[in-house]
Amino acid sequence: MIAVYGAGGIGCYVGGRLAATGTPVTFVGRPRMAAELAAHGLHLTDYLGADLRVADVPFETTPAGAAKADLVLVTVKSAATESAAEELAKVLSPGTVVVSFQNGVRNGEILRSRLTEQVVVTGMVPFNVLNRGAGVFHQGTEGALDVQRDAALAPYLQAFERAGLPLAQHDDILPVQWAKLLLNLNNPINALSNLPLRDELSQRAYRRCLAAAQAETLGLLDAAGIRPAQLLAVPMHRFPAVLRLPDFLFRRLASKVLAVDPLARTSMWEDLEAGRTTEIDYLNGEVVRLAESLGRTAPVNARLVELIRAAETERRSWSGPDLLRELS
């Protein structure tokens, strides 16, 4: 049995696709989500036209719900990783496989430090999932699930393949995590724009904001000796130049670079809309921490952290030119 620990957007989508294709899955999360899925079930869609449903969703609201799982997918927000690890340590059997499917680059290490008798595997979800309400979760961008290579995953590979979410295994997951984080540097820009992802990326001013955040990060990664993996058709070190292209040229390349459908939104936009604390400290904040470790600064990413923290208190929408001026 597989347990999804932290059944929000990513957890409900990944676990839901597994459940819809015949794998026993138990979801563990908040009472609000339990009530929503009890009333509506799960409805999973994606940008390629997938349309899957799960009528009866096994859902638990306490850590004990994961106790009998052979595989646990941790999908809590990054700020909740330590508490999730402590909760799971009390209920999981030795040898249970635990996969971190979370943003940021440090969650696997945090889980591993607490779950010393379990097999902890670092993973990464490259695509966006939009919670549309009433049990509907939509994958709006492309990508497979990425994980650190580990023999303990062998019994589950077929289930993920059957669900249409194959596990891409890597000998070194850190370059993949940093590549995803480079893409996720757009999360605050999208959230501040208050636009769907495709509409935001269609405007050069917003793309120049992202290019500035990425270029700053790539310089720091070079200094740290970290080369991000290539997740898209364009190598990550060339991505800022693509983003800076005029709109008509970018549109020609966009479909080859990244598939994004009109419904796609970022999780940070969802968090601001719901009045929740965002994961900004584990995205752009991670870049700021990297800069500090190198004795440098990251002014673009630091300013985005400040703007999102302000937006958590008082919401406003930024135009592309206004945001670009703020970051310049």
Core attributes:
globular, 45% helix, 15 helices, 328 residues
Question: Can you walk me through this structure?
Answer:
The chain has helices at residues 9-20, 31-40, 81-91, 107-114, 157-162, 174-184, 186-193, 197-201, 204-224, 239-243, 247-257, 267-273, 284-293, 299-313, 320-327, and strands spanning 2-5, 25-28, 42-46, 51-54, 59-60, 71-74, 97-101, 119-124, 129-133, 136-139, 145-148, 167-170. It is an alpha/beta fold and 328 residues long. The strands form two sheets. An eight-stranded mixed sheet has the order 5-2-1-6-7-8-11-12, with helices on both faces. A four-stranded mixed sheet has the order 4-3-10-9. Helix 3 packs parallel to helix 4 (107-114) and helix 7 (186-193) crosses helix 14. The protein starts with a strand and ends with a helix.
Short précis:
By secondary structure, the chain is an alpha/beta fold. It has helices at 9-20, 31-40, 81-91, 107-114, 157-162, 174-184, 186-193, 197-201, 204-224, 239-243, 247-257, 267-273, 284-293, 299-313, 320-327, and strands spanning 2-5, 25-28, 42-46, 51-54, 59-60, 71-74, 97-101, 119-124, 129-133, 136-139, 145-148, 167-170. 45% of the residues lie in helices and 16% in strands.
